[in-house]
Write a structure and sequence with these properties.
The protein is α/β, with parallel strands linked by helices and 285 residues long. The protein has one domain: 3-Layer(aba) Sandwich (Rossmann fold). The protein contains six helices and nine strands, in the order αββββαββαβαβαβα. A five-stranded mixed β-barrel has the order 5-8-7-6-9. Helix 2 crosses helix 5 and helix 3 packs across helix 6. It is globular and about 50 Å long. The structure holds hypoxanthine (HPA). The site of hypoxanthine has 13 residues, from strand 5, strand 8 and strand 9.
Length: 285
C-alpha cells in the first residue's frame, strides 16, 4: 500500500468508527438531540435531572474511552431538559490521562454524526483574573491552546471539515450574549474571559500563572480546548462555561487540591444547572 493509500485508510477509519459509535447510540435511544453537553469535574450531576433518560456507559460505545479521573462518571446520558432533547457526557476524558487527542475528541465527532449542532462545554478552572474568585462562573470568549498539541494534527477527512479551519470565533457570540442575559435574570454573576488550556496533570507554578496572566488568560484548565477545536472544524456552535473552583497558583496563598476543585464544582452545580436549564430552553434547534 502506498503512503497515500494508507493515509486514506486512516481517514476513512476515524469517520467510519464515529459512524459505528453513532449507530450504537441511535440503537439505544429515540431522541433526536441537537444539543450536546460535556459536564466537567464535579458538574456531572446535572445529567441525573434529565427526564426520560437513557444512560450508556462509555465502555458500551465502540471507540469511546473511559475516564480515569475521580469525579468523572464515564457515561452518556440522553434525555430531556425543559422538553428539549439533549445528550450529555457525564465525565470527559483528558489528555493528561494518556489518551490521544483523537480519543479525547472522538465523542464530539460522534455527536456531529448524530446530528448535534450546538455543543455546550463545561469545565472546572483556576481563576487568574482577580475578579474570578472561587465559585464564580466565566463564559469563555476565546481560548489559548497551550497544550502543545492540536487535535486536528494528522490526516484530515474533509467530511468532518477543512484542513485549516478558521478559529476567529470559536465560541458563539450569540450564545455568550444569551448566557450573560440569562445569568442576569437569575442574579448570577457571570463574566466573559479567556480560557488557557495546559496539558496538566500538575497544577501550574506561580511563575506559569504570572506568564499566563501576561498573555491575557483569565482562567486556566486542562480540557475543553481540544473539543472546541474539533467541534469548530465541524461547524458546530459552541458555548463554553468555566466554573472557577479555585484561584490559580500564586493568586491566592493556598495550595490547590483536586478535592477542593470537586467540592466547589458540586457547590456551584445548582447555580450552573439552573442557568443551563434556562439556556437550553431558549436555544434554537
Ligand atoms: N489549574 C488547572 N486546572 C484546573 C485548576 C487550576 O488551578 N482548577 C481546576 N482545574
Amino acid at each position: 500500500m502506498s503512503g497515500k493509500q494508507s493515509e486514506q485508510m486512516a481517514q476513512s477509519d476515524l469517520y467510519s468508527r464515529a459512524e459505528k459509535a453513532a449507530h450504537t447510540i441511535r440503537a439505544r435511544t429515540t431522541a433526536q438531540a441537537r444539543i450536546a453537553i460535556v459536564l466537567g469535574s464535579g458538574l456531572g450531576g446535572f445529567a441525573e435531572e434529565f427526564a426520560d433518560s437513557v444512560s450508556i456507559p462509555y465502555q458500551q460505545i465502540p471507540g469511546f474511552v473511559t475516564s480515569t479521573a475521580v469525579g468523572h462518571a464515564g457515561r452518556l446520558v440522553c434525555g430531556k431538559v425543559e422538553q428539549v432533547p439533549v445528550i450529555a457526557m457525564q465525565g470527559r476524558v483528558h489528555y493528561y490521562e494518556g489518551y490521544s487527542l483523537e480519543q479525547v475528541t472522538f465523542p464530539i465527532r460522534t455527536f456531529k454524526l448524530l446530528g448535534v449542532e450546538t455543543l455546550i462545554l463545561t469545565n472546572a478552572a483556576g481563576g487568574i483574573d482577580v475578579q474570578l474568585t472561587q465559585g464564580a462562573l466565566m463564559v469563555i470568549s476565546d481560548h489559548l491552546n497551550l497544550m502543545g498539541v492540536n487535535p486536528l494534527r494528522g490526516p484530515n477527512d474533509e467530511r468532518f471539515g477543512p484542513r485549516f479551519p478558521d478559529m476567529s470565533e470559536v465560541y458563539s457570540r450569540e450564545l455568550q450574549e444569551l448566557v450573560i442575559e440569562e445569568a442576569r435574570g437569575l442574579g448570577v454573576p457571570v463574566r466573559r474571559g479567556i480560557y488557557a488550556a495546559l496539558a496538566g496533570p500538575s497544577y501550574e507554578t506561580p511563575a506559569e500563572i504570572h506568564m499566563l496572566r501576561a498573555t491575557g488568560a483569565d482562567a486556566v484548565g486542562m480540557s475543553t480546548v481540544p473539543e472546541a477545536i474539533v467541534a469548530r472544524q465541524m461547524g458546530m456552535k459552541i458555548l463554553g462555561i468555566s466554573c472557577i473552583t479555585n484561584m490559580a497558583a500564586g493568586i491566592s496563598e493556598n495550595p490547590i487540591n483536586h478535592e477542593e476543585v470537586m467540592e466547589t464544582g458540586q457547590r456551584v452545580r445548582a447555580t450552573l444547572t439552573q442557568l443551563l436549564r434556562r439556556l437550553i430552553a431558549r436555544m434554537p434547534g
